[in-house]
Every structure is written in structure tokens, then in C-alpha cells.
Amino acid sequence: MILVGNAVVERNLAAGVESEIHVPIASDQDVVVARHKGRALATELGFSGRDTTLLATAISELARNIVSYAGRGEIVLRTTHNSDRPGVMVVARDKGPGIASIEQALREGYSTSGSLGLGLPGVRRLVDEFEIVSEFGEGTTVTVRKWKG
Amino acid sequence: MEVPILKQGEILIATVQAALTDSDLLQLRRALVEKVAQARARGIIIDVTAMDVMDSFASRTMREMAHMIRLRGAETVIVGIQPDVAFAMVQLGLSMGGHDGCRPGRRSGVLTPKFTG
């Protein structure tokens, strides 16, 4: 578990070394832990309050999907950067049942769990980059990135 | 973390003190739906100032809670949604709905709203 101060983050970025935080997800308590750690990392990088909250909300949704659909998995938080800005990369990974149709799961209003069905399309709107890889029966990995505004 | 519920005349005030897990939210719902008749309350105020994230589960639970409370004869007002939280909720596509008995308070910290009917 690495939570580093601002100076260290910048040094790591300069050296191309990214800090990485692994949060095991197996219960609703872990959902809260994951979003708190994501918030802390975004704050360290100097994200605005609004972007920090958008990121924390996205992490909350992704972590809850793991608990609801796969039972357990992990959230990995990592500092990242493009040419001119730092950002946070979130990888939500599980070995659950996988998603039969990603296209359907990304459609507004679609849900198989009786929830609002806003999960993935909503998360996509909260972040800058969104990727999903899912193998039916093998698990799901969602990777999102949010850049400092 | 349990949410304290205070009785002020015909109003119950639940003040969320810190981030809530899903089970904390369900516990709050259970407590308020039970207490509303016990306390002969006509209105419930839920102060969510301390909530730094209102995700799909939290807003669905609040909406359902307001609906249940209305069926029990009282109105629910949510106060203290932070500006960043409101922004994230709208981006996510969430609403508190006006039609099912849960309305946002006009001002944060309103203590004596008028409850109709």
C-alpha cells in the first residue's frame, strides 16, 4: 500500500515510476475504502474538488459492480501522465461471470441485476477514458483514466 | 457507522456524519421507516452534508426510503448535497426524483420546511 506525498509523486512521475495502490474488493466496506484511496490520490495530484468527486464516484460504481456481479476482485489505483498532465488510472478487475454483451452493458438503461442499469454508461461519463475487456465466464477488467483538469 | 436521528417536534432529523457503506444506508432506511410512526413525525430531514459521494446505490436507497416514508404518512427532505456531489450525480444520470416524495431542500440546513398534507 503506497500513499505518497506530493513531492514523491512528482519525483516518481519524473522518473517514470508510477505509484500503485491495490485495494481488494469483497464487501460494501471495501467500496468505501477504494473511493477514499482514489480521492486521496487525486487530491495529492492536485485535482479540483469536482474532478476528485467525479473520480471517487466512478470508483464507487466500479467497486460496487465487482461486489454485486463477481463477489470479489480488486481495484488498482495508479498515477499516470500523458504529455502534459498527470492523471489517475483505475483498473477494476474481477474473475466473475464476465459480461455476455458489452455492447448491451454500455447501453443506457440496461441492467441484469434489477438495479438502475446506469452503471457503465454513467461511469463512462464521469471519466476521460474508459476501456472494458470482458470474457464471458472469465471475468471483467474495466480501466478508466481521469486527467487533471 | 450509525446515523443519529433526533426528534424536533413533528420532524425527525437524521444527520449523516461520515461516509456510509451500503449496509449503513439500508440500516438508516430501516430505522427511519420504523421511527416515523413511532415518533408521529410528519416530516423527515436527512442532512447529507458529510457525504462526499452519492452514487447510484445511495441515491436509489434515498429515493426508496422517501417513498416508504411517504407511504407511512410523512414527507422527506434531503438537505446539504454538496455542489461537487450534485455535479457528479447529474453526470452519472441520477436524480432524487420529485414525483415519489423525496425533494431536495431549497437551502442547505433548512430546519423548518413546510410539509404539505
Can you walk through the features of this model?
The complex is a heterodimer of chains A (149) and B (117). Chain A is α+β, with helices and mostly antiparallel strands and 149 residues long. Chain A has a single domain, classed as Heat Shock Protein 90. Chain A is 40% helix and 27% strand. Chain A has 5 helices and 5 strands. Chain A has a 5-stranded antiparallel β-sheet with strand order 1-2-3-5-4, covered by helices on one side. Chain A is globular. The two termini of chain A are 26 Å apart. Chain B is α/β, with parallel strands linked by helices and 117 residues long. Chain B has a single domain, classed as Transcription Regulator spoIIAA, CATH 3.30.750. Chain B is 37% helix and 19% strand. Chain B has 3 helices and 5 strands, in the order ββαβαβαβ. Chain B has a 5-stranded mixed β-sheet with strand order 1-2-3-4-5. In chain B, strand 2, helix 1 and strand 3 form a beta-alpha-beta unit.
Domain tally of chain A = 1
CATH architecture of chain B: 2-Layer Sandwich
Q: Give the helix proportion of chain A (percent range).
A: 40-55%
Mean pLDDT of chain A: 85
Helix content of chain B: 25-40%
Low-pLDDT stretches of chain A are 1-11
Principal-axes geometry of chain A comes out as: globular
How many separate domains make up the residues of chain B? 1
Over all CA atoms, what is the radius of gyration of chain A? Answer: 15 Å
The N- to C-terminal Cα distance of chain A equals 26 Å
Q: What amount of the residues of chain A lies in strands?
A: 25-35%
Compressed to H and E, one letter per element, the order of chain B equals EEHEHEHE
